[in-house]
Amino acid sequence: MFLEVEHLSIRYPRTPSAAVDDVSLRLQPGDTITLFNGEGGEYTASLTAIEKKRAHAEPKTFSPREAELPYGLTLAQALPEGSKMDWIIEKAVELGATALQPLAAQRCVVRLSGERAEKKQAHWQGIIHAAAEQCGRNRLPHLAEVTDFKRWIAQSDLHRRILLSPRGEQPLSGWARHHPPQAVTLVVGPEGGFSEEEENLACAQGALMLSMGSRVLRTETAGLAALAALNAVWGEL
Question: How far apart are CA 172 and CA 155, in angstroms?
């Protein structure tokens, strides 16, 4: 059986880039590569041919190796300004987030809809793909569509939702030390934070309001710090 490399992702060696165009610059037919399809496990394969737009490989062995957390972490991030979301998504994948939920909150400056939203969605999916290649994950985190915060928070969710806010009376790390590892959704506001109305609505829907300590973190810092904190307390880092 032979595989077209353009339909899989290459991890040889683990670098941020794995485009087929790069393969022709770095590898030769006969070289051993690692391939994964984002659904779990990875293949050791041998390159058999390299063309301008594609490469072919012969799979040799399959390994069920995984680099996933034993608990699911979803990052629900209100849309920040500029390219901050790119950074947040990339680092969230590296820190083990299993799902990403972009949110449109009251204080979001960025508004996405229609074709612009579709383009952003495709762009973010590419970032997820590249980040998984770089950090050695064989499963791609799920990327949900941008959703209005009020509509999203009203939905039933089996996972505990934790809203990060300076108004929280208990720090996230303190809460995590007294609770076993479990699937949670971390909810982070935009630059100006969630409005009081949104926070009250979230708590009314069962969300737990926690803080990140005595300092107010930027939107691009809060969610990533929270992911790292849970990893540390629950034994991954």
Answer: 23
Give the tens place of pLDDT for each residue, 19-51.
444 554 577 888 888 887 778 888 888 888 888
Using alpha carbons, list the distances in angstroms from residue 176 to 212, 226, 232.
12, 10, 10
**Bridge partners of residue 46, in order along the sequence:** 32, 58
Task: Read off the pLDDT of residues 190-218 as tens digits, 9 standing for 90 and up.
Answer: 999 999 999 999 999 999 999 999 999 99
Whether the CB-CB separation of 40 and 28 falls below 8 Å is answered with no
CB atoms within 10 A of CB 111: 10
Length of the chain: 237
Which are the contacts of 43, defined by CB distance < 8 A and separation ≥ 6?
3, 8, 34, 35, 36, 59, 60, 61, 62, 63
Q: 73-233 maps to which CATH number? A: 3.40.1280.10
The pTM (predicted TM-score) of the whole model is 0.83
> What's the CATH class of domain 3-63?
mainly beta
- What pLDDT does residue 84 have? 95
Q: Which two tokens stand for residue 175?
A: 């809460």
Tell which residue, 127, 79, 129, has the closest CA to residue 104.
Answer: 79
